[in-house]
Design a protein that fits this description.
Elements (H helix, E strand, L loop, with lengths): L1 E3 L11 E6 L24 E3 L56
Antiparallel strand pairs: 1-2, 2-3
Length: about 100
């Protein structure tokens, strides 16, 4: 998935970055007791990812339209579990980048 960059800096100034879902749930430890993750919403469950399989030149990135205007690859609110929305506001993409056309 591609999400908003929650921490732009000198090395990663980009508006969008690859993100992955941390495999945790508000009830992950409920077997051991109640309310063991009281601060569950303090940190995002979708975080910056550094995938090792990104290639610079592929058929998928031949054109800007592979990403721009493609809602399937962006982390939008409908792809986030309802109980995780609050924690992930910093990475959820509100508006998909518009398609880029060849015509000016």
């Amino acid at each position: 998935m591609i999400g908003r960059n929650p921490n732009p800096n000198y090395h990663r100034p980009y508006e969008y970055v690859p993100v992955r879902h941390v495999p945790v749930d508000v009830n992950s430890y409920s077997f051991y007791g109640e309310n063991l993750l009281p601060n569950f919403n303090l940190l995002p469950t979708w975080t910056y990812a550094t995938p090792h399989n990104i290639q610079r030149i592929t058929p998928q990135n031949e054109s800007c339209t592979s990403c721009h205007g493609n809602p399937d690859i962006f982390l939008t609110i409908d792809k986030v579990a309802p109980e995780e929305v609050e924690a992930n506001q910093s990475v959820i993409v509100d508006q998909i980048p518009a398609p880029i056309t060849d015509n000016p």
